[in-house]
Amino acid sequence: MSFFPKIRLRKEVEEYLRSAYHNSELLATLGEEEAEQKFLRLQNHLSHPPAFTTVRVNTRLISVENAKQLLSEEIHKIRRGMLLPNMEDITSISAVICRRSLKQHPVQVIVGAQCGNAVLRGAHVYSAGILSASKWMKVGDEVSVYSDVEARCKRGATEFDGTKVFVGNGISELSRSEIFCSNSPIKGKGIRMTEPVYLSPSFDNVLPGYIFLQGEVIAMDKIANKVEKVKQKASVLKLNSIQAFCYNSTKAVTPDSGDSQGPGPPFPPESFDRVLLDAPCSGMGQRPNMSCALSLKELTSYQPLQRKLFSTAVSLLKPGGTLVYSTCTITLSENEQLVAWALTTFPCLQLHPQDPRIGGDGLMGAGLSPDQLKLLQRFDPSLAELHDFDINDGTLEDQDRTLLANTDTIGFFIAKFVKQG
Ligand SMILES: C[S@@+](CC[C@H](N)C(=O)[O-])C[C@H]1O[C@@H](n2cnc3c(N)ncnc32)[C@H](O)[C@@H]1O
């Protein structure tokens, strides 16, 4: 069931994605109608948030069971929530699903689409995200918040008649004039969300040190800010073994196999046992995403960079080492086609099975064999039903909750290679 309009894409991007979902291999297996249905479902699912939020537990400091207990107490403080059974070091927290019957207030706030998406994942509204507020809005007002999915609303407008999607109710912490008529840019929370349409708990500052949202080791990133964050996080988590460097990873291999200059990059070839390439990508699997402004040129710009980074990763890997390539996108070109290219370009690489295997097979269309497709994990958000019931109302058995958590995810992709000795 679809509550929000399907993701809004530029025509050229929609056609590009559609053609990937109508590739000859898929059409031969599914037929025209089913292929189109699959593509439509995907567009619908992308504009909705996934059912669960998964966090990694720092098992050096706390067991998953204990973290779950503490988390459950924290969530109880915030709002009613439910936890899923554990895996080795992660646990998942469900979003309480779509409360479409919420009463809407006369005082309206319009926020940018990014901000609206964040609200659906548990965020409050920060003043920078507010585009428009009713004329009479004052501190303490109950307000209804809408997402400007078509990016049409003018900053400071008092009314907005364009397409807007209701994302929930909250209390204003700033008046309209404080937001739009201050001399200096105003920062901080603008609306405290009390009734978001999707109840996704936010984990900002919840159990710091014990749990964290995805990403365990990052060796290099070219953005200094990200590297700083990794260092801070590693220090909070007391993980002394993580070293983060601000570096262009396409240049991370020393030109000859001599010693490297110091502890940081560039590194000699074949000096890593394992490499995780969590590649920069078009991010088309992120959910919820009601409107995507990427042009086709931007969407297709990632493949060359991904190939460069992949080539570097292969050079850095020791024979017998493991290379994991991942993206958070749903395009064929950044996923299965990258894998097909890698297997042809680097005969030393073999695809390997992944454990745990939760996602579905790779998408047909890149010339990979059915056996190869089975070694990939594609998390395809359109595989789950969109649900209009409260996940915590007791009707779902544990196994159904687990199935939902494993399928109603953001769209992402994982391939695991081993370099032959
Ligand atoms: C999908 S994100 C990785 C996210 C990371 N795993 C985390 O949890 O924060 C891809 C990252 O690649 C970085 N990046 C893009 N081009 C790069 C390059 N040439 N060298 C190093 N990092 C690069 C981007 O700055 C971005 O942070």
TrEMBL record:
Keywords, comma-separated and alphabetical: Methyltransferase, RNA-binding, S-adenosyl-L-methionine, Transferase
Short name of one Pfam family: Methyltr_RsmB-F
Statement: the UniProt record of this protein carries the keyword Membrane: no
Protein name per its UniProtKB record: SAM-dependent MTase RsmB/NOP-type domain-containing protein
Signal peptide segment: none
High-level lineage: Eukaryota, Metazoa, Chordata, Craniata, Vertebrata
Domain named SAM-dependent MTase RsmB/NOP-type: residues: 214-420
Organism expressing this protein natively: Eleutherodactylus coqui
Entry similarity comment: Belongs to the class I-like SAM-binding methyltransferase superfamily. RsmB/NOP family.
Biological process according to GO: RNA methylation
Active site per UniProt: 328 (nucleophile)
GO molecular function ontology, one term from the record: RNA methyltransferase activity
